[in-house]
Write a structure and sequence with these properties.
CATH class of the largest domain: Alpha Beta
Helix content: 55-70%
Strand order of the largest sheet: 2-3-6-1-7
Oligomer: single chain
Radius of gyration: 38 Å
Length: 377
């Protein structure tokens, strides 16, 4: 039965952003051929194959569930062919494979890391795919497999070393390298928005932006890495991304920017408080000499917080303007303070009188503050 390639593209794109092998899946199925997906890990080769297999099952193109078989150095002839009938072997000494448990009994099959198996296993596989039968001695079993999708990180140039592997490779008519052409923040964000159920959009945008910055350097995170980074970000916070390879410097830069932003926001906030306090401070309404001094001291401390702030270079011009304005507010309050102190009458040489005279004769704002700070608790 024919499948429209556009239909498969739409299916795969619901979950995998920028997956570039969907049409090839349809072409292979329509041709009755197998396909190899190769390329760097983490770009959805296996996920796309499983989605396509489930699509075939749900739409009655096949009657058996997709069969996934992981190859590797642990792959043996017995495992490839479903395992041994141990009881038969123990009782009669006969080697019988449980082919009903093997890939040959399934219509749609996914091979994971095909080329990692030993050559002897690949030789058996080549014979099966070439003949369409499992041949053991005088007996043979016609395979039911209609299509195989092999997923591997290794391309043709790495695996074809002799005529045998070339012959096996020819059993997979279609070959497609899976990957992205660009790795921008927008690409990562869109990938996360598709892949994650009930996605936190702000988290997806943040992690996508960070992944894009990482990719602009020497290391390119795969979409799978981005997905895992998103999960860690949601569960553990942004700092946890430092532990991911290639992310450390970007995260530290991000943290520094956050610190700088908070520092500048604190300056802005203190300047706002200073302006508000200066506007609302009316020394003439304060009856206590000591409270007058304390009110000025509180105002000046806001000014000191502004002066001591460390702001990033891109804020220095604005910071200079803001400090001048803050200084002007303090000088105005200082003049009003002195005008109010003149109204207080103390016994000559008493503590209050001494402090009052020191302040009235002092011209430097910082020294006036020190006088008050030293004497007023």
């Amino acid at each position: 039965m024919y499948i429209e390639p556009i239909q498969v593209e739409k299916l795969i794109q619901t979950k995998l952003h920028n997956f570039n092998g969907a049409k090839e899946l349809a072409w292979a199925w329509n041709s009755g051929e197998n396909i190899i997906f190769f390329g760097k890990g983490g770009y959805g080769k296996s996920v796309a194959a499983e989605m396509f297999g489930n699509f075939l099952l749900e739409n009655d193109f096949i009657s058996t569930a997709p069969y996934v078989l992981a190859f590797g150095q642990g792959m043996t002839e017995e495992r490839l062919l479903g395992g041994l009938d141990i009881k038969k072997f123990q009782e009669e000494g006969e080697i019988i494979y449980l082919l009903k448990n093997a890939f040959v009994s399934s219509e749609f099959v996914i091979f994971e890391e095909l080329w990692d198996a030993f050559p002897s296993v690949l030789l058996i596989l080549k014979d099966i795919l070439t003949s369409g039968y499992v041949r053991i001695g005088n007996e043979s079993f016609k395979i039911k497999t209609k299509m195989i999708v092999a997923c591997t990180n290794r391309g043709r140039e790495e695996v074809v070393s002799d005529n045998s592997t070339e012959a096996l490779m020819q059993r997979f008519l279609f070959e497609k390298e899976i990957g992205w052409t660009t790795h921008t923040s927008a690409e990562y964000t869109q990938a996360l928005m598709k892949a994650v159920k009930n996605v936190n959009e702000d988290a997806a945008k943040t992690v996508g932006r960070i992944c894009g910055k990482v990719a602009a350097g020497d290391y390119i995170p795969s979409p799978r890495t981005a997905f895992k980074a998103y999960k860690s970000y949601v569960v553990n916070g942004a700092e946890s991304l430092i532990g991911i390879y290639g992310f450390e410097q970007i995260i530290k830069n991000e943290q520094q920017k956050i610190v700088e932003k908070l520092s500048w926001e604190k300056v802005i906030n203190n300047h706002f408080k200073l302006k508000k306090a200066s506007a609302n401070l009316n020394f003439s309404e304060i009856k206590s000499f000591w409270k007058v001094l304390k009110s000025y001291s509180n105002l000046y401390e806001l000014y000191l917080d502004i002066l001591s702030a460390k702001v990033p270079e891109n804020y220095l011009n604005d910071f200079a303007v803001l400090k001048l304005d803050a200084k002007s507010l303090v000088r105005t309050s200082e003049r009003e303070l002195k005008q109010r102190l003149v109204d207080f009458k103390h016994k000559p040489a008493c503590t209050a009188d001494v402090i009052q005279q020191e302040i009235l004769h002092e011209m430097i704002s910082s020294k006036i503050y020190q006088i008050i700070k030293y004497n007023v608790k």
